[in-house]
Structure formats: structure tokens, C-alpha cells
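Apologies for my clumsy wording, but are you able to produce some protein sequence, whichever is easiest, and the C-alpha cells describing how it folds?
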Amino acid sequence: MSSKKNSLKIDKEILMAIGSRIIDIRKKLRINQKEFAASLDMSPSYLSTIENGNGNPCVGFFFRLSMTYNVDMNYLIYGTGNMFIKHEINKPIENKEFIDGIETIEDMRWLMENSTLFKSTIIGFSNKFLYDNEKIIKRSLKKR
């Protein structure tokens, strides 16, 4: 998955710190390494290499991580700020929790059309499904 052409040259100490923060993000999300890797369209072994500070991740990895899980790049790279970006929804929800504001199918449709996080989450779950069922899918396609 790693491409030398798209890789950044990063100091080993920085790679170790980034790897540690990625582990923290994954644990905060309560996702195991295999599921996390699948949601980011990468192998678990490559993710492990990055988490251990031995991998030189490509720019695409940082982008996918930020877009899929709403990770703040300042936190990821420098360890400053919040772990996740807090987006404000333009639709008024009064003084309720975000999820409590979803009361109708129209609310859910609006969220699907306007939330990058929602779209990225669906893509992440789809990638996980495909990764978990890769052998079955390949066998099914070969039979056709």
C-alpha cells in the first residue's frame, strides 16, 4: 500500500509519536486494528508498521484517516489540539445532542447528503465488509 513516490520523509521520532497517536485514535474509536485498517483501505500489517513508528505513511493515508474519522491533522502530526474536528451542522438542532436531533427520515436523508463524516463512515463500513468477505466474494465472482 505504501508508495515511495507519495511518501513523506519523516524523522523516526516523529513517526513513533504519530504511530502512538494513531493507536490512541483507534482505541478512542474502540476499533480493532484489522477493522481500522479495512476502513482505511490498507492491510493490517501496513497499519501495524505505521503504528509502531516503522512505516513511512503516504500522504493518502493521512487524508483517508482525517476524512474517514474526522481526525484533526494538527493533533495527528503535532499532538496539539483536539483529537477530532468538531463540525457544526448548519441545520438548527436547538439544545439537543446531535444524534437526538435526528427524528425523521428527512433528517437522516439530510445528514446523508450533507455530512462528510457520515459518508466516510459508510465507506469505512463497506470497506470492512469487503475486506472481511474478500475470499467469499472472489469465489462467488469466479463461479460466474
About this structure: Helices lie at 12-29, 33-39, 44-51, 59-69, 73-78, 105-114, 116-132, 134-143. Residues 91-97 have pLDDT under 50 and may be disordered. DSSP finds eight helices and no strands in the chain.
